[in-house]
Amino acid sequence: MNPLLQLNEVNTHIQGFHILQGISIQVPREGVTVLLGRNGAGKTTTLRTILGFNTPSGGEIKFDEKVINGWPPFRIGALGIGYVPEDRGIFGSLTVYENLKVAARDGIREMEGRLEKVYQLFPDLKRARKQQAGTLSGGQQQMLALARILVSKNRLLLIDEPSSGLAPIIVDRVAEAITELKKELPILLVEQNYNMASKIGDNYYIIDQGRCVHEGRMEDLEKEPEIKQRYLGVAV
Amino acid sequence: MFDTLFFNLLLNGLAHGMLIFLIASGLSLIFGLMRVVNFTHGSFFMFGAYVGRSIFLATDSFVLAILGGLLFGFVCGALVERIAIRPFFGNRVQLLLLTLGMMLVMNELVKIIWGPTILRFPRPDYFIGSFMLGDIILPYYRMFIVGFGLAVLVVVYLFLNKTRLGIIIRAGVEDSDMVQSFGINIKQVFTFTFALGVSLASVGGAISGPFLGVYPEIAMDNILVAIIAVVVGGIGSFGGSVAGSLLIGLISSFGGFYLPQAAMAFNVILMALVLLIRPQGLFGKGGLASGR
Fold it and tell me: Are the beta carbons of A73 and B174 separated by less than 8 Å?
């Protein structure tokens, strides 16, 4: 089957800097694809370029066989591509329920229909639904960011560093939630936490200096200590 | 001590505060959402006064004058946003100069159309007279301004908190990129918010006419106090614009009576104090300098 999302030789310049230098990746229609790489390798820029926040200066981005480069972000979002940025992107002065309402692209009725399942997955959010989102803990904010994706019909989920800034025990819960999500949605995940990435990832791409330098099945990367050491700084 | 004078100054201050609120609330929302300081806001207040007066003189209907001011502001606001603001979006310096320039043009334009002198905007018959509370005289028209301001306040509050579009506007004030990722065309939201904000200023102008008179300088006078009210209340916060405006209105009223030479100084001192103690404003979230 064709991949759901395809980047062919994508280049992105930000304020004169050549950040993505010909990235090519394919995200299949199921499972978790992980983007690995050191800080500043271009992982977040890759996600933001897919989403239309950065306009690629070259190459091609295809979603379901449709070329989407140059589209405004809202049209890309409307295709059913959900985004959870590293800082979670929570609207802190809005209540939890209002956050979900903003995300309810397919209408409030559709959202209400999906809420029960969302609350089942994240019971904290049900209790806190009238609470200001800015007062939630880091882990709860991450749950809310994921919940916002689930209240509409989405086809692909982009998650940036879900473990960042969270206590280890919370990271485990986030990993569990993503494992649950991957049954329903293909996911493109950026993650520095190698343990978490290896637990939930199916495929990987390693990005270094704006290029893909390695790719393969996640379980095969386990057998490549040299690559892990060189590009990810993971001790052998 | 609570004599007629006190209640008169209080009512005056509240009425003036409500007029400032009608300018400041839109100014604050537009800046919070779009990072545009819209200097034309005071000019639309002024234009609203002239347009409202013309409609009232032509139709003898004060209701039509109010609706006309509202509609005039909404249409002009939408046009200005689409034609002038959008091409420069993202460049704050250019936008600042643009709205400043448009303000100057508008303030001169009004003199060409209606002349430079103060014009009388007669009160409708049913607002002539005063309500007597013991020996306290409360002019009907000032009470109307306070009531009208309160009604707008409630409607805008409900809109921002109970409708999805209103919630989206509040979300956009925090993070407009994230709003777009949910498939929402933020540019349409910008146009609507700009038009809404301008229409509030314009209708404020229309109802101010019989209270303040109609003359070109009301543009400058009011944009300055509205900006101060926004800074005091906290940029982007609706509640803040309410509090800031009423505070400025009351200070102007009482300060202007007891120490008229220092009336404007009181406002600036209040702003300086707030900025020193609480740079984000009374109800604000981020600091003034906090970008996105």
Answer: no
